[in-house]
Amino acid sequence: xxxxxxxxxxxxxxxxxxxxxxxxxxxxxxxxxxxxxxxxxxxxxxxxxxxxxxxxxxxxxxxxxxxxxxxxxxxxxxxxxxxxxxxxxxxxxxxxxxxxxxxxxxxxxxxxxxxxxxxxxxxxxxxxxxxxxxxxxxxxxxxxxxxxxxxxxxxxxxxxxxxxxxxxxxxxxxxxxxxxxxxxxxxxxxxxxxxxxxxxxxxxxxxxxxxxxxxxxxxxxxxxxxxxxxxxxxxxxxxxxxxxxxxxxxxxxxxxxxxxxxxxxxxxxxxxxxxxxxxxxxxxxxxxxxxxxxxxxxxxxxxxxxxx
Length: 308
What we know:
Layout: E1 2-7, H1 15-29, E2 33-38, H2 39-42, H3 50-57, H4 67-77, E3 81-87, H5 95-104, E4 119-127, H6 132-137, H7 140-152, E5 157-165, H8 173-177, H9 179-191, E6 206-213, E7 224-230, E8 233-240, E9 243-252, E10 258-266, E11 271-283, E12 286-295, E13 300-307
Parallel strand pairs: 1-2, 1-3, 3-4, 4-5
Antiparallel strand pairs: 6-7, 6-13, 7-8, 8-9, 9-10, 10-11, 11-12, 12-13
Helix pairs in contact: 1-9
């Protein structure tokens, strides 16, 4: 199998470059193939032209995409997985990689009447100066994942993974003390990229919408749930339709059933809350949760939410 690696770092003297090299060694040692786009070495043109903007903004498949963009699209469609390796700059990928998405994710390829294949995996390997706990507490790690997985790779890959190498700023002692462990971690990620080992069930970074609901309920097919999980704790934000903003918090048991409390404010300005038990079922290749909920006023109902 083949991985397409999109690498973006302005310096050869970096931990990120070493992580890339170890990741590639792992791919080779697993008997798989790779193709690399080193955006800085290629001097990839990150700025979208006016012609490209007008083409994509007006949902046109003409004129033909530029040759450098076409080459990147061909690399994608000849691969089984796509891997992005980069440092975090101000909670985002470097501008050159952002520009890569602006141009390569063109109309007729990544959206519209798509010619982009559905890839088996989409993996992020990024180095960050801040420690992971700080990025989590400030909501920055969640923001990074949402941009990459909730927008750029959404419905374009079957499986996603976000691998963070934290505390990598040059002034931090952890950069040197963790150096070898980080390289080993990158190597293992490359070596097991196409492994068929079964991963544990997780709701982290998964999105759902309601496909049915009792008349006494307030969620609808316009409501989007953004789920997270840490251990057996699950939580989600939801909004859309008659719900301005909502939150749920609870636990997941050994059978992947959810048990949580929820509260939201609806478009009438009412604050409503309740509790819910939710059972997972895989139907037609999609994960659904069959829910039985109860408002705090005692009114009960059922709903079904489906992964999108």
